[in-house]
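We emphasize that the prediction below concerns an isolated chain of 260 residues; any contacts that depend on oligomerization or on bound cofactors are therefore not represented. The input was used exactly as deposited, without trimming of termini.
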Amino acid sequence: MRDTSARARSKAALAVRRRGPPRGSPDALSIALDDPRLGLDELLRLLGSRRVPASVIERIGGDPRWTRHAAVRRRLALHPAAPTRLALRLTPQLGWRDLVEIASDPRRSAVLRRAAERDLEARVEQLTVGEQIALARGAPAAVARSLLGSGEARVLASLLDNPRLREQDVVGIASAADAAPELLARLAGHPEWGGRHAVRLAVAANRRTPIATALRVVAILDRRGLRRLGRDATVSAIVRIGADRRLHALRRAEARPGSG
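Result of the prediction step, given as a token string:
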């Protein structure tokens, strides 16, 4: 009888190893985990299935035999059934791309998403410029704001395409005294931010903006913006003059007979 039971368990474990977890059968998965023949590749294949229940995820996460492998820790933390307490324990050991995935997933708990964000913020300065550029495009809001202090123009240029960036953040980029001229020129022509009044005004007012770019912005500002530029002593003289001339031209156009 015992031999028959052992054979049945061995058969069940083999089936799980070959075909993956059956629907609604955590017992079969437990049998597979008890099988000493279960290899790393087979375990990773099991963890690739969304059918693995939380109880099995937790059991694997508590087994040092498996959690010593970075690939297993990653699969566990990213699995949709992973208990929050297990995922929280694993997030500090994940790569930054995995942290972005967790922090951006609305299906994960708010506690876990915020923990992933904090880990990302703590690592920003350790990333290469190339990694920061890639991170900037899709970083969660809190992490995106932590990248605003980057002195690297390529990182900030990538950050402009992040949908979580706020207008006040972009105005801050455009107003920075050390902003790169090429970044300001790119910002002026950006399809999303280049059309915002506050951003246009900040670009035109920044002394680091190339003169040709600043004057192109001046040409499309409204009267309120032109007046502000003309009165601001910190703005370069040529931009102030351009703003005054544009404002006078608008007034003359309105004063012409039949202009109303």
